From TrEMBL:
Keywords: DNA-binding, Transcription, Transcription regulation. CDD domains: PBP2_TdcA (cd08418). It holds the Pfam family LysR_substrate. This is LysR family transcriptional regulator. InterPro entries: HTH-type_LysR_regulators (IPR050950), LysR_HTH_N (IPR000847), LysR_subst-bd (IPR005119), TdcA/AbgR_PBP2 (IPR047993), WH-like_DNA-bd_sf (IPR036388), WH_DNA-bd_sf (IPR036390). Belongs to the LysR transcriptional regulatory family. Residues 5-62 form the HTH lysR-type domain. The keyword NAD does not apply.
Amino acid sequence: MTFHVKFHQIRAFVEVARQGSIRGASRVLNLSQPALTKSIKELEEGIAAQLFIRRSKGVALTECGESFYHHASLILEELRSAQEDILQRQGKLAGQINIGMGASVARLLMPGVISRFHQQHPQVKVRIMEGQLVSMINELRQGELDFTINTYYRGPYDHEFSFEKLFEKPFAIFCRAGHPALGATSISELLKYSWTMPTPRGSYYKQLEEVFINREQFPNIGVVCETFSSSISLVAQSDFLSILPQELGCDPLLANRLVMLPVKETLPKATYYLIQRRDTRQTPLTTSLITQFRRHARQINSMADEG
């Protein structure tokens, strides 16, 4: 006889996996620990597979559990999205939108779009995750992120996600005000200094790596920062150099601390894409937010053309 997985079993399993313990999931779901334990036991017996390894402090997913989690969490997110889609089509403009932003986008493009969207739809909750695309892949796969705007470097994701080019941004080499490198006009003059870069897992910085290797001019990257803000702070307050979005040179909060070095070499531009699952169907409000990002991207492209 085929075992039919029940919704409460999926919900219990996913929350226990996320919390790493029965106790934590019990608090989140407001259910008793015995009830959750029973749901998990029935699920494991029904599918004839052990999903968790019990430990002295909490639980961990087995290999089968990891596989089942990817499907189960996506089911819950699809159900949430489907419910919100129906409510929104009925005129109840509420719900939650989960988006991912590259650090540069989050700092300079996102605030205006999100502020405008929130004024139009104050009942909608927006969760913003900041980081490189590689750190968001699992959440995109599982439906926990509706979309991301990020750079993309060719890889194994083309069949899973759609990539819609939105805009390009020029990057430049920066140092602090008063840095001894001021006056340099070529990258070769800067190789003697220490450099910092955001994580090399980032799409644009993989692109940069190719450029430096081809020119046989590879800087001494002594510090790798996992966050964009860490790179900015380190450059602004030390003798490290870095390659950052050119627009930071016009940022009123940083203009007196960061100086752009006008080297003769042309650095590649970073291309930003709207990235979402190929099989996804966005809710009306998520579609509306995407439209606003597209509109803002067209403005960026127009200004770049005029410049």
